[in-house]
Amino acid sequence: MKAFIALFFSSAAFGAVAAIVYWFSSREYAGTILLGLMALGLGFAAGYALLAEREANLAGDSETLQHKETAGEDLGIFTKESAWPILLAFAILWLLIGVVWSPFMMYTGLGAMLLILWRLGAESARV
Amino acid sequence: MMKWLTTTNHKEIGILYMATTGVFFVIAGLLALVMRLQLAQPNETLVSPSAFNELFTLHGTAMIFLVIAPFGFGLANYLIPLQIGAPDMAFPRLNALGVWLFIISGLVVFSGVFAAGGAAFAGWTAFAPLSGIQISTGGGEDLWIIGLLLNAIATIMVAINFITTILLYRAPGMTMWRMPVFTWEMLATALMILMAFPALAAVLFELLIDRHYGGHFFDPANGGNVVLYQHLFWFFGHPEVYVMILPYFGVVSEIIAVFSGKPIFGYVGLVLSAFAIAGLSMSVWAHHMFTTGAVANAFFSAMSFLIAVPTGVKFWNWIGTMWRGNIRLTTPMLFTIGFLLNFLLGGITGVMIASPPIDYHAEDSYFIVAHMHYVLGGGSLFAVLAALYFWWPKFFGVKLSEALGKWNFWTMLVAFNVVFLPMHFMGLEGMPRRVYTYQPYGDLPWLNLISTIGALLMALSVTLFILNVVVTTIERKSAFALAGGPPLPDDPWGGANSLEWATSCPPPEFNFEALPPIRSERPTWDLNNVSS
Fold it and tell me: Which of A68, B372, B507, B512 has an alpha carbon 20 to 30 Å from B199's alpha carbon atom?
């Protein structure tokens, strides 16, 4: 985790330096803003990881931990199968087609998306 | 069938990704073959000019968004949990959503063929105003935009899944600095995706707003700016090309170590160079815009030269791994060596065009086409084939035929260079790209003819690979029956390093019956060769 934090902070610092150098060499807004946003985004991710790491006790970060010491640990939900992802994919397609050609499709697509996300949440609660 | 539609298992999703990219590769390859036949001779009339525009648009879009990049995601989907000792990806249903969005995105892009006005024809880059509603009047361009939006959403989800899995689901002892190089390269790839793909989504939405909602983002007559399109697009577009190569740097690193019989040389250098490339790739985008006259050429030229350095570090490390190794020239290793040769040539021409004076001469000519195909075709495609030959036994429990594999390699190496080497000279003689025909000027006729002959040979080579798959699949059932189960040991190649080779071929549902202890970056090697 420390390696991730260091790499993301370094990348954020690089982005910030690049944005500054780019602005003074070009006075161009789009690229400067994009580089600056990149630096902010990476810095945010690294900062969040830094704070989260204080509470985390990841088995993968230990060089000497044995597998049997972590036996029975809850790793979260691993569904074997679910129909909701493919249905959600088609709902998103319906929505985007509606954005271009049909407000009716757009609104029904949005409704379908929300419905499917609600059922996905219910599926997570059941697993 | 229902199992494949509803699966959330990372291995099955990985196979869905890779199989789909195979289908799109064949389609995009046939499109390229038609283009080469049209260009075989000057003033050929096999296809119309507008049809030719649709051909290169769909070919480029498919190869970039539907083949090279997603094959890497599919391979990573299969391998990352295995390589870090996890039972699955962090978000299995998000994973499934990603693969279905990807498959649907490809179908939507190609459905443009049936639209009024035909498929999109503005190139895979879709520069404004060519992609605007005044010129691209039909629905084909809209379908292209929708398809790519779906693809972008899917790719961002993939990146989120990769980062979360790699950070949080590593097995005990699998510290970050013990992860395989392939997993590190995928982490760097995911980082680039998160930075770059939102820019693609933004520019596509802006294009949609300009086309259908009265927007003027890229309309200079109403306060917009066409160069803005290029800035936003290439801010995505350049990291995208590194998204298409970094997974294959990982593939090459894994294969070279196994078939040189040595640990990877310069592990830390390989990891740090991946992140150097990821960071630098975000700051070179306007080297695609030198000839607009609207960008800071010096800044982007300097950064573009700089990005060659970490790539050079990787080459140093790969050669160092092979140096004085016990090299086995298996099919995966042959394709890997082919990658090194081809990518080196493509990289060198890349450094050349990082210089604005050279780029002013070469931009939008066949020299650029040659460069990009050497890095993407000679690089990524060779690595795709290396990966397929190497990991096929892990996926399916049988090895592909080595004899057919070697024929595949040698025909591909020769064919690839026959197609694309002449393109350097075509470009230097002034042949522009994206033209449906040309005049019988200078060496262009015979260079184009040679290139077309090479394309036919490439088609034959691809057919050899398909034949290899068919023959192996037919034999697979009998091989399994004879052996009373999967006929291969966990590590059929011998000398493997990473954790996926410490479980059966193919792996069980949640990957490992029992994990070996992880005390170095070569846990499988330690399991098989170091007495505890």
Answer: B372
Q: What is the pLDDT of residues B339-387, one digit of tens each?
A: 999 999 999 999 999 999 999 999 999 999 999 999 999 999 999 999 9
pLDDT tens-digit map of B484-500? 666 789 999 999 999 99
In the three-class reduction of DSSP (H, G, I as helix; E, B as strand; rest coil), residue B7 is classed as: strand
B8 CB within 8 Å of a chain A CB: yes
Backbone angles phi, psi at B415, to 5 degrees: -60, -45
- Distance, in Å, from the CA atom of B186 to the CA atom of B170, rounded to the nearest integer, reads 14
Q: If DSSP codes are grouped into helix, strand and coil, which group holds residue B432?
A: strand
CB atoms within 10 A of CB B446: 12
Residue B485: both structure tokens together:
């189960």
Question: CB A62 to CB B172 under 8 A?
Answer: yes
The residue of B275, B300, B304, B512 whose CB has the most chain A CBs within 10 angstroms, and thus the best one to mutate to test that interface, is B275
Half-sphere exposure of B249 (CA within 13 A, CB side): 34
Q: Hey, are the CB atoms on A35 and B296 less than 8 Å from each other?
A: no
Q: Which residues of B touch A90 (CB under 8 A)?
A: 100, 104
Encode A64-77: b = buried (16+ Cβ within 10 Å), e = exposed: ebebeeeeeeeeeb
Residue linked to tokens 């050929």: B44
- Across the interface, of A76, A88, A100, the residue whose CB is closest to B212 is A100
Nearest Cα residue to B97 out of B144, B19, B158: B158
CA distances from B92 to A22, A124, B95, B130, B286 (A): 40, 11, 5, 40, 37
Q: Where are the domains of chain A?
A: 2-58, 84-126
CB A42 within 8 A of CB A8: yes
The CA distance from B482 to B472, in Å, is 15
Other beta carbons within 10 angstroms of residue B98's beta carbon come to 28
CB contact under 8 A, A85 and B97: yes
The answer to whether the Cβ–Cβ distance between B299 and A58 falls below 8 Å is no
pLDDT at B483: 66
